[in-house]
Prior knowledge:
35% of the residues lie in helices and 26% in strands. It is of the alpha/beta class.
Amino acid sequence: MSEDAIRLRSVTRRYGSDGTSVTALDEVSIAFPRGTFTAVMGPSGSGKSTLLQCAAGLDRPTSGSVTVGGTELTGLSETGLTLLRRERIGFVFQAFNLLPSLTAEQNVALPLRLAGRRPRRDRVREVLRQVGLGDRIRHRPAEMSGGQQQRVALARALITRPEVLFCDEPTGALDSRSSREVLALLRGMVEREGHTVVMVSHDPVAASCADRVVFLVDGRVHGELAGASAEDIAARMATLEVVPC
Ligand SMILES: Nc1ncnc2c1ncn2[C@@H]1O[C@H](COP(=O)(O)OP(=O)(O)OP(=O)(O)O)[C@@H](O)[C@H]1O
Ligand SMILES: [Mg+2]
């Protein structure tokens, strides 16, 4: 089995046509090794979400190759891609994307139901316990705080035991305490369970929880830092975000 959970080779993603086309990703080559936690940072519009979506099979690159544990995504049909996402990939969105009419337990069980599998109640509860919500299983999203909703979204992403978990600004809408809880969970999943996590964040403190930080500028990889402090990451970001005034 490949050492890399995900590998992108020369991935370009262009939106629009000729006159108005935008190159969101420009020949990006990057690997995410198994059992590691990577943060992706860069100015707004630099291609972070596009990178995650291409790597997770939610979007198709214009050219280049994406492999998930050795499976080439670009050759898969829509159905093949849907199955791969369902079985092997977890995705957490900034806006949680929980269904308001379902309880925490029902939201977490949803990916299994969509896959035609019968969710085991004890497994659903175990995952909710893992994210610290064992006492909230019957609550609906509106009855929970932002941090709790984000943890339900994490539990929902984990229920299928994905090979890779992608999180697009998972702490963007949270206060600092809830952010710390979510980050500690992500860190713990990498350390204790060998998960592979790729997280987009604007926050140097959040990014410092990762093993390495990859910087994107104008759709290209612009260096990386390993084991860096929040201060080092903030200093690097400041050099990337300089705008002429
Ligand atoms: N569906 C789309 N159609 C056209 N252009 C798009 C589309 N999605 C993204 N883009 C463009 O691609 C570029 C990269 O967008 P992307 O969402 O990946 O940036 P980002 O780094 O995630 O930014 P942010 O930090 O603001 O979330 C931007 O210039 C954006 O306007
Ligand atoms: Mg984005």
